[in-house]
Amino acid sequence: MVPSGEANAELRTRIRQQAAIADLSQRALETDALEALLHDTAVTVSETLDTGYCAVFERTADDDDLVLRDGVGWREGLVGTATVPDRDSHAGYTLNADGPVVVDDLHDEDRFTGVEFLASHDVRYGIGVVVGTVEQPWGVLGAYATEKADREFTDADVTFLRSAANVLANAIAAAKANGDRSETDGERNRRDETDRTERERELARFKRAVEASGHAIHMSNLDEEITYVNPAFCETTGYTAEEAIGKPPSILESGEHDDDYYRELRETVRSGEVWEAEITDRRKNGELYHAEQTIAPVTDENGEIDRFVAVQNEITERKERERDLEESEARFRMLAENLEEMVWISDTDTREVLYVNAAYERIWGRDRESLYGDPRSFLEAVHPDDRQRVERAYAAVPDEEFDEEYRIVRPNGEVRWLHVRAVPADSDDQQLRRVVGIAEDVTERTERERALEESERRYRTLVENFPNGAVGLFDEDLCYTAVGGELLNATGVAPADRVGNHVSEIYPDELVSKFEPHFHAALEGETNSFEVEYHDRHLYAHTLPVRNADDEVFAGMLVVQDVTERRKYQRQLEESNQRLEQFAYAASHDLQEPLRMVSSYLQLIDRRYADALDAEGEEFLAFAVDGAERMREMIDGLLEYSRVETQGDEFEPVDLDAVLEDVRDTLRMKIDEDDAEITLESLPRVEGDAGQLRQVFQNLFANAIDYSGEEPPRVHVAAERTGTEWTISVTDEGVGIDPVDQERIFEVFQRVHSDDSGTGIGLALCERIVERHDGEIWVDSEPGEGTTFSVTLPAVGADDS
Q: What element of type H or E holds 82?
């Protein structure tokens, strides 16, 4: 397992501490200057433990006080003169304790009260160890700080301080031995041997620590030749000690770093500073590896740098994991930044937002930087009616998952609906906990659902209150989901007996076979109408699809109307119309004979006695002949009008282009005489009676030419599809029709122009024919602005041309 970053830092610290003790031990072996060693020890302790103060306290001869023999950080003039009580101070308490004394906070300290010296320098934290033996202490070595470090004082820190105190104690003992003139040479030699043995043991302990270290360690001299490697170095690099010693450290260079990297490294360590950085090196077999590297300079007794120690902690696996993680994060960010949904990651403890994608700004209309500054700022945008619920649910994360739909109010006042989910997520080693959330804008979906609910409510209201009939909603299984209407009440059928049942369970087989195909067709989007006899009632049924806001069919509807009475009246009306048609036919037919007689005698008078008549007589005779002719035309028109239903042909597909071409041929002479211009768009095929439709357009064309005014007639014919119908428009640029006359132009024998031309039956006949085709005819006109007659006719299936 690769150590964590915290473990790596701690291990590097311990290596540096060991190196510092080794360096201090070397100085103690090589110098007799105790004062210099005392100061070097204070400096080394302060720098290595990263504290602002270090003190070397010595017991006075009367054992009442401890004097500040040397130190770092204290105000000028105190070293060598300042004293502290030998019992009621930290140093005094340490002197009489069984082991090191750690002060976690001087303000809370109750083991001693003489804290004036430390408090005057704002010291709050520290460690103290005895210099010498517990039985015969020389003094106290202490490290102090005003601010608490990022880490607590550890056992390793205590061990380091004790090792420094031991080095100092050995040096003090050696200095005392050298200064004791009463000792014999043999005694001094034995004491020196003892001191040397102790120092050698200290060095041996350091060497064992280095040899056992899992970090690759090597030393090199000023000529950049490797002088020592530990076993971990060999294991990491693949070089044996024999292969590495005497070679430059550059044998490990990978080519991944430029010259500036190595130049800065050399300048740093040769200037006496410690170099710490990640490095990529190459093993003997050519394989690259990554390491955290610390290179520290080591000085001789004169303080001159004479060698360098390098410590490497291999982090190849961690770097690969980091690279994989970076690639994963890059893919995640690329995906997240292009999502329509908002995605965010936050810390479970602090609620700090660690990442939020750009969709936040699109959805919320706010800068996402506001979330990084204040993770709770999103609550400001939550709709006041939803805020308390959202805040309560948000506070329960991560103990409970967050899954809420709520409204937000954008800065422009727009209200949006969101569906927001958030769940806790752990890293693989369960050391890292995060909250991952996603927010989707569901405004359109919510509006559709509400519209659907409203539509369903309207449908159900219609179903329950449908007058003179019944309505039923059915699903894809042909089971009713809602039924109602006055017809059910009239027939004594309870709606509860219909809902949830299949149509085959409700109606007789002969009825099911008739309308079940229409039910399926409705679910496919088709609309159909049919008539059935049920419960002695004549019913008109209509099946149609029910669509949602996306225009998708989600149900079918059956609308049934009781037309029993209507059918009765319709039969009576048909019989009445038939009698009227028979009467009109008989009347017009019976009028033909006397009219022919009148016309014949008038013509005979004109031939035989025309010369005998004066001018006034000739005029009277002409009036009589013209009146008889118009009477004949009116009788013919009335006959046609009465025969529209009975004498028409069966409907079939009719090509209107061909029909209007026939009309133009029939009116060719009239068109040429009036210099009329008729333009036609491409016309469709319709379902109808070709002969009757020819009559309609011939009448419309003739009227357009007759009432064109002073200018040559200009007539245009256009067609437009609307659902299952075509609308055919005939437009002229003639005299137009006064609005007060437009309501009566389709009545029989009605004329709206003063020239008394025509029979007054043409437009009534057009209306009768169009009604037979289940269509409509109407006029749009302004006096002097021309006229447009529009006719609707049924389209032929799905044929648009």
A: none
Q: How far is CA 119 from CA 86, 114, 144, 534, in A?
A: 17, 9, 11, 107
Q: Cα–Cα distance between 589 and 576 in angstroms, integer?
A: 19
234 and 244 in contact (C-beta within 8 Å)? yes
Which are the contacts of 245, defined by CB distance < 8 A and separation ≥ 6?
226, 227, 228, 229
Please name the residue ranges forming H helices in 441-550.
443-465, 486-491, 509-523
Question: What is this structure's pTM?
Answer: 0.34
Give how far Cα 278 sits from Cα of 87, 237, 308, 314, Å.
Answer: 48, 16, 18, 10
CATH C-level class of 652-794: alpha beta
CB atoms within 10 A of CB 452: 15
Residues in the chain: 801
The pLDDT-based confidence of 205 (bands split at 50, 70, 90) is low
Q: CA–CA distance from 454 to each of 445, 523, 566, 567 (Å)?
A: 14, 21, 33, 36
Q: Where residue 799 falls among pLDDT bands split at 50, 70, 90?
A: very low
Instruction: Round the CA-based radius of gyration of the chain to a whole number and report it.
Output: 56
φ, ψ at 782 (rounded to 5°): -135, 140
Domain 339-441 is found in CATH 3.30.450.20: yes
Identify the CATH homologous superfamily for domain 447-562.
PAS domain (3.30.450.20)
Question: Dihedral of CA 624/630/633/638: which sign?
Answer: negative
Three-class SS string for 781-797?
ECCCCCEEEEEEEEECC
pLDDT tens digits along 85-130: 888 899 999 988 888 999 988 888 888 988 899 999 999 999 999 9
Region of residue 491 (left: phi > 0; alpha: psi -120 to 50; beta: else): alpha
Dist CA 709 CA 781 (whole Å): 14
**CB distance 744 to 725 below 8 Å:** no
Provide the CB-side half-sphere exposure for 195 (13 A, CA): 25
Those residues with Cβ within 8 angstroms of residue 592's Cβ, 6 or more apart along the chain or in another chain = 632, 635
Cα–Cα distance measured from residue 60 to residue 167, given in angstroms and rounded to the nearest whole number: 21
According to the model, what pLDDT value does residue 342 have? 87
Nearest to 351 by CA among 388, 402, 385: 402
Distances (CA, A) of 35 to 29, 53, 303, 659, 730: 14, 18, 15, 129, 124
With helix as H, strand as E and coil as C, how does 184-226 read?
CHHHHHHHHHHHHHHHHHHHHHHHHHHHHCCCEEEEEECCCCE
Maximum Cα interatomic distance, the chain, rounded to a whole number of Å: 194
DSSP 3-state assignment of 289? Answer: strand
The amino acid occupying position 686 is: V
Strand order in the sheet with 83-85: 83-85, 65-72, 53-59, 137-145, 125-132, 101-103
Q: d(Cα 637, Cα 647) in Å, to the nearest integer?
A: 14
Identity of the residue numbered 583: F
Q: Do 447-562 and 31-179 have the same topology in CATH?
A: yes
Mean pLDDT rounded to a whole number for the chain: 83
Please state the domain extents for the chain. 31-179, 339-441, 447-562, 568-642, 652-794
Measured CA angle at 484 (ends 483, 490), to 5 deg? 130
562 DSSP β-pair partners: 539
Task: Tell me how far apart the alpha carbons of residues 439 and 406 are, in angstroms, rounded to a whole number.
Answer: 10
What is the spatial distance between Cα 82 and Cα 120, in angstroms, rounded to a whole number?
A: 12
Contact predicate 463/426, CB 8 Å: no
> What's the pLDDT tens digit per position in 671-726?
999 999 999 999 999 999 998 899 899 989 998 998 888 889 999 999 999 888 99
Query: At the topology level of CATH, where does 31-179 sit?
Result: Beta-Lactamase (3.30.450)
